[in-house]
Amino acid sequence: MKIGIDQMSFFSPHLYIEMSDLAQARGEDPNKYLIGIGQTRQAVIPPTQDAVTMGANAAAPLMTDELRQTLDLVIFATESGIDQSKSGAAYLQRLLGIQKYARTIELKQACYSGTYGLMQARDYVAVHPDRKVLVVASDVARYGLKTSGEVTQGGGAVAMLVSADPQILTLENDSQFMTDDVMDFWRPNYATEARVDGKYSSNVYQEFFKELWDRYRKQTGRTIDDFDALVFHLPYTKMGKKGLQMVLPEADELQQKELLAQFEASQKYSRQIGNLYTGSLYLSLLSLLNETPGLKPGARLGLFSYGSGAEGEFYSGILQPKYHAGLVSNQVPDLLSRRQGLSIAQYEQIFEQTLQGSADRELEIKNDPAQFVLAGLKNERRQYLKQH
Prior knowledge:
By secondary structure, the protein is an alpha+beta fold. The chain is about 35% helix and about 25% strand. The chain has helices spanning about 20-25, 30-35, 50-60, 65-70, 90-95, 115-125, 200-220, 235-245, 255-265, 270-275, 280-290, 330-340, 345-350, and strands spanning about 5-10, 15-20, 40-45, 75, 105, 135-140, 155-165, 170, 175-180, 185, 195, 230, 300-305, 310-320, 340, 360, 370-380, 380-385. The strands form 4 sheets. Strands 1, 4, 5, 6, 7, 8, 9, 12, 13 and 14 form a 10-stranded mixed sheet that branches. It has a 3-stranded mixed sheet with strand order 3-2-15. A 3-stranded antiparallel sheet has the order 16-17-18, with helices on one face. The longest helix has 23 residues, at about 200-220. Pfam families: HMG_CoA_synt_C (PF08540), HMG_CoA_synt_N (PF01154). This is Hydroxymethylglutaryl-CoA synthase.
């Protein structure tokens, strides 16, 4: 039985900054950000959006009346959780109108948990082939103003429906994964911004990829010749390119050009959005599917997922004949074209407007065009609204 990703959808808020403006404000050469890091723009998350609202906004285009009544498993992957106890998936269930006889669960392992959620969904469908599972990977990448990690901030959500006989990608049962307790990135309970050892984290990412790639080849007997594209988790786009360059010498000259061209297509959206944490790999996949006209059904894609702390997985999927039917038509280009650019002063003001503390407050939602918004805090409870 074929099982995999049947439909995909994406959301990121309506605000952004130019990385060249940020570089100038921080006294850096713009090329350090544009070329050295590989980022052009960065999504800015207003106080009226969080991991829950972004997840709901991403999933909404996939919902139908029939799905709302039959969906019985919602998996919410995030490292930007809004509660130490209650699952963000429970909020999604209500906001999306999903029937109450459904399991809703939140997963955490840095940027990796979106992939684990996808694999759990696959296993569930294997036992219940008539069911579908909603997997949402949603995060706010936040390091702090004037920090070394500021250039790799961003945010957004990817929603995926997993089913038998999927329209987009079948998942092969060939995953190779590994875990190691390292302190390359973490966020203490008392902090809203992550802590990161940037150079060390970059090295661990590359070491995980190479070790898993070598293990995958040994376990499956496949080589780089068996792949039409390699898709990477992209905390920033240069990171994935470094990973790809580690294995390119295994390919002949023609395939090297093809793999590089596919990577350029896969990183196009991430260059404009920034870091999605749990959704980053799947934004790369969306970008590849939408921006590569020559990608043919039956193509084997290799996908590398990494989460600091650290856990990684390499697996493959087979592109399906009607994969475009599972994508929301022109969704990401339309979203990018409608965004509003901010000055660095405006961005810094928004960055400081976090919903911290226990005091009641109302947020100004009229300027947020999203369907689902965070309207404030009342009796220590987040107030989520559907605007339209």
